[in-house]
User: Fold Heterokaryon incompatibility protein-domain-containing protein from Truncatella angustata.
Amino acid sequence: MACSQCQTTIFGNHKSWGSHDLSNSDCVFCSQLRADVEPVRKLVDESASKAPLYWWKLRRPARIRESPESYSLIFTPNSEGYLALRSVPKRTFHLLEQDTVRIATKLADRTDSDTTVSQMKSWLNLCKGSGHAQCPHPKRPTWIPKRLIDIGATSTDRILVIESATLSNPVDGYMTLSHCWGDPKVSPLNIRLTVVDNATFGNPELGIDWSELPQNFKDSITIARELKVRYIWIDALCIIQDNDEFHQEGQLMHLVYRNSLCTLAAASSDDSRGGLFRDRNNRELIPNVLETSASSKFGKRSWVILPSALWHDQLLSQPLYKRGWVFQERMLSPRILHFGSTQVFWDCASISACETLPDGLPAPLDVDAAFERHWRERLQISQDNKTLSGAADDSLEAFWKRAVRTYTASNLTRNIDRMPAVWSVAKLVRDELRRQYQKREDYGAGLWSSRLYEQLAWKVVNPSKASRPVDLSQYPTWTWASLMGEVELQDRFTDPNQFWGVTNHEGGEVSFELMEVPENLLKDVPHGGNDLQQELRTNALAIRGKLRSVALTKREKSEKSQQQNKVTPDADTFTLQVIGRLTTISLTYNNFEVFPDSHSPSLEDYKEAYLLILTASRIESSDSHAKNQNSSVAGRLSGVSSQTMQIPMIYGTGLILERVAWVPKKDEVNCHFQRIAACNFKGLTFSDFKRLNAQKGKKDNLWLL
Assistant:
């Protein structure tokens, strides 16, 4: 319901915007906004400001023929009136005509109720039948894992872990479980497959006693039985955990999940004991319906009110989806049943739905889910040796860029899983890139072999939350594999204005070398070495460019800069000062921005830093910024109007390096460096760029580690 204040100020007149203060009622709008403000409520109350807490705006999206009528109601925190509200999110609610969307009118008080199970069966049967054109409909999986858990057709006190090769009858299908193991120091998993247990777990006379299973395993087996599926794959019980088997089997997750019938996701459990099912307040979940009068701008209609962030707040913010391994499980599974804290969600290549919206998310709520659905379909299609991306698709480059950002924002129990936990998706993208470009494309520690030099300027989104842990020191600093933290990749292949880039020591392309996969790891791997990840032969990249001594300069924070930096408003920002004879070159926060790799550095830490420009592009500019920077040039050009002259301006990417401690051989100069930051520049004059990069001078041969 909407409170009387919202009814009057928002829905009872013809205004499209206004100020908003919060009522204390259980209003669908005010109650959500109160919850958002609560963490900073004390600071707000102590403020002397009398300004409203929020501004509201009503938007009516453009309609295409036959699209349903809808409105978007946006509440924006008044951060100018209250600085404490800077951390409070903007909230959007969508109003959809009631007869255009089917909503649940009643829910049971638990997520393992008969009605919930019935809904799960309905989703699964429709999808694996002929109801979903975008979803795969194989009669049997084309590949099955090395081991499966036989849970029996009916409830039993024991389950068996069986070797798939020993099965006499074909497997019609198997489920997979996606779950959090838990912190090994706080809530260790109490059962797992070991070399010793391998024979016991598969012995029909012994097996695994039901009472020994953690709740996640019990609940997933219960659901599999309800859905009439005899086999389930659970990582802890189907891969031997105390030998080298995981090194091989862990690289085959693209086969395990793509061939499963459906993945059961214990989304709201942060360890193995939490289980899949939850009690809930069903009345709070049923979407609200708003009645508007004929005299209002809405007319006499009934509107379903849905929060824009439903998919994120009720599903993607759950503990499971903060775990790194789950990213590829979510992308590769043809179907997923997510067991959240309030309701069960369904995902496949055709629809994303939940108990309250059983026919699927309406379009305004479906943006993020639709992106994953689309690529879930494409990743399934590639299994049939068809093209992964079509003419109407976003590029594979865009998909990979978004995939890495999503993956690196999640957590791993073991840092050393940084590369293995994303390999299954990377492998499929690599294979498709090879098909698309009809040439060899290799994947080395998170980066691609083609135009490697363009990719080296990846950026850390929030340096204060990033680190280079010791257990990732096997990876060189030039790859994001060496670092824990959210990363944004640099584009490649996209800039027709590029005129310069670093090379290797011989003037060719910068490249890495990969080792061959050892023969002993190829046993029982379906496609041989193609399915297994190759390691770097050496961490050293040979690069020829120009190094310039620089010092970092910290930008003073201001309210305006913090508001503009929406991702990390409290993060420090830096630019550079050139040291030596080139001090006349002006590098400012407007034309040169530095992105540290880890916690905001102390300026004292980087007294001896070096700038290496990686790429440079040229564009003709006639804006005031260019004219101001080049006024002396303009004044010398007789007869040319300064209002129309075109001035070449340079933009590009670079790295900030520090010298690595190294013991050189006799007469050898220490030319070994490691990365400490990335940088972007724009608006440099061509003359300043030539001086900074010494285009005609001698270049430096260096090794980037």
Q: What stands out?
A: The first helix runs from residue 4 to 9. The two ends are 60 Å apart (CA to CA). The first strand starts at residue 17 and ends at 20.
